[in-house]
Design a protein that fits this description.
With 118 residues, this protein is an alpha+beta fold. 42% of the residues lie in helices and 19% in strands. It has helices at 3-6, 10-15, 21-28, 36-45, 49-60, 103-111; strands spanning 62-68, 74-79, 85-89, 97-100. Strand 3 (85-89) and strand 4 form a beta hairpin.
C-alpha cells in the first residue's frame, strides 16, 4: 500500500478499486465530495428497485471530483471504466456527458477556459 493509500479513506478504496494513483493523490487533498446527488437520485427512485440499482451502478463507476449548487446542482466525475471526465446535472444526475477524455485533459480545459467552474 502506497503512502497516499494509507491516508486515503478506506470506503473510497473499497468502492473504487481501479482508482489510478494520480487520482488518489488529487482526491486526497480537498475534503471528499459527498454522495449527496446519489442520495437525491435514490430518494427520487421511491422504492423502484430497478432504478435504485441503476443509480448505484452509475455512482459505483463514477467518482465525483467537483460538485456545485450554484444555479443548478451539477458535478464532474471520473468515469472509472476509461478515465474520462463526465458532467451531469439535475434532475437526472446519471445522464452525463463526457467533457474530457482524461483527468489531465479536464484540467487543461479548465485552464484554457473551455470548461467553466462555478
Amino acid at each position: 500500500m502506497s503512502a497516499v493509500e494509507k491516508n486515503f479513506p478506506e470506503q473510497i478504496l473499497k468502492r473504487y478499486v481501479n482508482l489510478l494513483d494520480a487520482f488518489k493523490t488529487f482526491y486526497e487533498q480537498p475534503n471528499l465530495c459527498s454522495n449527496a446527488f446519489e442520495q437525491m437520485s435514490l430518494e427520487a427512485a421511491e422504492g423502484d428497485k430497478d432504478l435504485e440499482n441503476k443509480v448505484k451502478l452509475f455512482w459505483n463507476a463514477h467518482l465525483p471530483i467537483m460538485m456545485s449548487v450554484d444555479g443548478c446542482y451539477e458535478y464532474y466525475a471520473i468515469a472509472l471504466n476509461d478515465g474520462s471526465v463526465v458532467h451531469g446535472s439535475e434532475p437526472e444526475f446519471e445522464e452525463s456527458l463526457v467533457v474530457a477524455d482524461s483527468f489531465a485533459n479536464f484540467l487543461l480545459k479548465i485552464v484554457a477556459g473551455e470548461i467553466g467552474i462555478s
